[in-house]
């Protein structure tokens, strides 16, 4: 069973590599160096996602895609709150209130 975990991790890294919005194979410019860099990027993305989730677990939150889930700033704010131990001001609530009043 311990041998299945690295295979799963490699499969997950390969899946994320394919989802990086970068060309996996573009023909003439694809080199071993480019493939290695893309694979390394996918592994780093997966590692950082796990690190973020280990901290977000303290507030019962989780992200599945690093780029998309941190894009709007909500989860990033939650992460900063966990890391700093302080409550941060959320201005988006004020923006929504202004929008509802036609300002």
UniProtKB/TrEMBL annotation:
Annotated segments matching region Disordered: 1-28
Compositionally skewed regions (Polar residues) per UniProt: 13-24
InterPro entries: Actinin_actin-bd_CS, CH_dom, CH_dom_sf
Keywords: Actin-binding, Repeat
GO terms for MF: actin binding
UniProt cross-references to Gene3D superfamilies, sorted A to Z: Calponin-like domain
Repeat found in the keyword field: yes
SUPFAM superfamilies named among the record's database cross-references: Calponin-homology domain, CH-domain
Domain Calponin-homology (CH): 42-103
Record protein name field: (Atlantic silverside) hypothetical protein
Organism: Menidia menidia
């Amino acid at each position: 069973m311990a041998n299945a975990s690295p295979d799963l991790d490699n499969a997950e890294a390969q899946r994320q590599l394919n989802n990086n919005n970068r060309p996996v194979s573009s023909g003439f410019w694809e080199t071993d160096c480019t493939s290695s860099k893309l694979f390394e990027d996918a592994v780093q993305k997966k590692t950082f996602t796990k690190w973020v989730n280990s901290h977000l677990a303290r507030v019962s939150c989780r992200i599945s895609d690093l780029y998309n889930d941190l894009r709007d700033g909500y989860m990033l704010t939650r992460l900063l709150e966990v890391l700093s131990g302080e409550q941060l001001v959320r201005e988006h609530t004020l923006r929504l209130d202004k929008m509802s009043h036609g300002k």
